[in-house]
Amino acid sequence: MGFSKENEQVTSQALDSKSPNNQAEPGRVDSVRPASATKPYLSVVIPAYNEEKRLPGTLATVLEYLEKQSYSVEVIIVDDGSADATAGIVQRSMAERSEQPNNCELKLIASEHRGKGYTVRRGMLASKGEYVLFSDADFSTPIVDVVKLLHWLEQGYDVAVGSREGQEAHRYGEPFYRHLMGRVFNSLVRFVTGANMQDTQCGFKAFRREACHDLFRRLKLYGDNARTVKGAMVTGFDVEVLFLARKRGYKLKEVPVSWYYVGGSKVNPLKDSIRMLRDIIQVKLNDLRGLYRDER
Description:
Layout: E1 9-11, E2 28-31, E3 42-48, H1 55-66, E4 73-80, H2 86-97, E5 104-111, H3 116-126, E6 131-135, H4 146-154, E7 159-163, E8 170-172, H5 176-193, E9 204-208, H6 209-216, H7 237-247, E10 252-256, E11 258-260, H8 269-288
Parallel strand pairs: 1-2, 3-4, 3-6, 4-5, 7-10, 8-11
Antiparallel strand pairs: 2-5, 6-9, 7-9
């Protein structure tokens, strides 16, 4: 199945990290070396908005782990129009790695600030891996848990959803109000969309390549026409992805993972809860209007 391809430029050189505000040019894709003709086994998509404080540590940890694996990997950082040094941090890491041949290719995609839903979608559609994982930039779920998701994809499932619920899942340090918000929201998701999942919002999900591109190109809430926004914007795009996956007959597996509360969250409990509620209602309305009918 085809998908829309955005106007992007691929280069083999890192951008100058001393450019104004360390910001990359929107619409541009950079990597430390030309893309291989062979598809990577795994793509890791990381949306980032003003992550200059957390990204250096998390990116180093992720790359260190992935470079020890026997398979090939591409790591795609999608900069959501950050106003800080987020892009510069990635560019410097790319430059440092350019003389060190390894199994892991690091890429940077610069985007206008359109929010997490659009940013994740952009990275997922740019991915080339046989399997594609997206994770929040803080990696509240450690990268080592990717093996749990890959196991089920290799068993024939199309989507493996990291879950903070269930007997084998572990939460560490989460404030009570955050947990309560999550449970209330998930109950609303199940009521409105019929999704039979305990946790739709954990930012750690993996897809078979075909399912990834098919689903993300069909998103309506934060697609190509998504507007630019001000400030951090947390959305319910996960709900639309999982709703479409279920509607299109893909095999989904909810997989218990470990999850660590990381301070400095950009979540605004009131504002983001209202926006996410609007999103799940809009998904249901879109379905009733026939907007998710099969497209060839």
